[in-house]
């Protein structure tokens, strides 16, 4: 997704995945 702490959907690109 965008900047979520745990790319839930991961439809786009895990920018941070922090």
UniProtKB/TrEMBL annotation:
Keywords: Chloroplast, Plastid. It comes from the Eukaryota. This is PsbA protein. It comes from Phylica humilis. The lineage of its organism: Eukaryota, Viridiplantae, Streptophyta, Embryophyta, Tracheophyta. The gene is psbA.
